[in-house]
TrEMBL record:
This is 6-phosphofructokinase. GO terms for cellular component: 6-phosphofructokinase complex. Its EC number is 2.7.1.11. Belongs to the phosphofructokinase type A (PFKA) family. The lineage of its organism: Bacteria, Pseudomonadati, Pseudomonadota, Betaproteobacteria, Burkholderiales. Its cofactor is Mg(2+). It is an enzyme of class 2 (transferase). Pathway: Carbohydrate degradation; glycolysis; D-glyceraldehyde 3-phosphate and glycerone phosphate from D-glucose: step 3/4.
Length: 269
């Protein structure tokens, strides 16, 4: 972190906000600790925002929505899973769910409320830790004048200009271990096993874990698949006396003539 220079006409930073958004991933608490310690070295105060942007948009529901964070508060949290600040996957200020007079719920733009809350709390800048959704929100707020630092977090590793997002390595290691263990079962029972991994739009986890775990076929969203070549590989293995196969499939993999569709939660009944 670098304090803003008064020479540029930009107010110096004295207090920053810190939030974690989206799904939890390994390393979030380590990032929280690093931000707080780095801010302390600069002489900045840190205000933790609870449950992502909900802490700014629904503070009454969250006991005020914010808390002070000092080096003592983050001592010993680096190895802990989850996030001490909490998170939310439904708190997009630009499409925030709001009850309507008729009892329905409609998405409203409450980004101006985020800016107002940041001003009320005396936040000179915001550190947003999250994936593509949180980074898109951070970009939108930055375009409205808020000083923002985005910390890329996603196990999918699908953020541009980022070599490896934190959380990805742990996800690959876990998926690889699962694939390793399935080899014995597949071989013992002479089965073809299909392993689905996270990755709606990006196949990094499936590709890395599949290669590391010795999968016999890997299907990823970036390359529409044809099942015929996959079937031929499995048949060739069977003729060679290898009567088991493991196919790793990213959740967003799609056949050549198929389409991808998202289903709203609860729509399936």
């Amino acid at each position: 972190m670098v304090a803003a220079s008064g020479a540029t006409g930009t107010p110096a930073i004295r207090r920053i906000g810190l939030l974690t958004g989206g799904g939890d991933a390994p390393g979030l608490n380590a990032v929280i600790r690093a931000v707080v310690l780095a801010a302390a070295r600069e002489g900045w105060e840190v205000t933790g925002i609870r449950d992502g942007f909900d802490g700014l948009l629904a503070p009454d529901r969250l006991g005020g929505g914010v808390c002070a964070l000092t080096p003592d508060d983050v001592h010993g949290i680096a190895h802990l899973g989850g996030t001490i600040l909490g998170s939310s996957v439904h708190a997009d200020p630009f499409h925030y769910p709001q009850p309507q007079p008729d009892g329905s719920i409609a998405a409203c733009d409450r980004s101006s409320d985020v800016l107002a809350q940041c001003a009320r709390l005396g936040l000179d800048a915001l550190v947003a830790v999250g994936g593509d959704g949180t980074m898109a929100i951070a970009d939108g707020l930055a375009r409205q004048g808020l000083r923002v630092v985005g910390v890329p977090k996603t196990i999918d590793n699908d953020l541009d200009h980022t070599v490896a997002t934190f959380g990805f390595d742990t996800a690959v290691a876990f998926a690889t271990e699962c694939i390793d263990r399935l080899h014995s079962t597949a071989q013992s029972h002479r089965r073809i096993m299909v392993v689905e991994t996270m990755g709606r739009y990006a196949g990094w986890i499936a590709l890395h874990a599949g290669l590391a775990g010795g999968a016999h076929a890997i299907l990823i969203p970036e390359i529409p698949f044809d099942l015929d070549p996959v079937a031929r590989v499995i048949a060739q293995r069977d003729r060679a006396g290898r009567q088991h196969s493991i196919v790793v499939v990213a959740e967003g993999a799609c056949p050549i003539d198929g389409t991808r569709a998202l289903q709203a939660a609860g729509a399936a009944g």
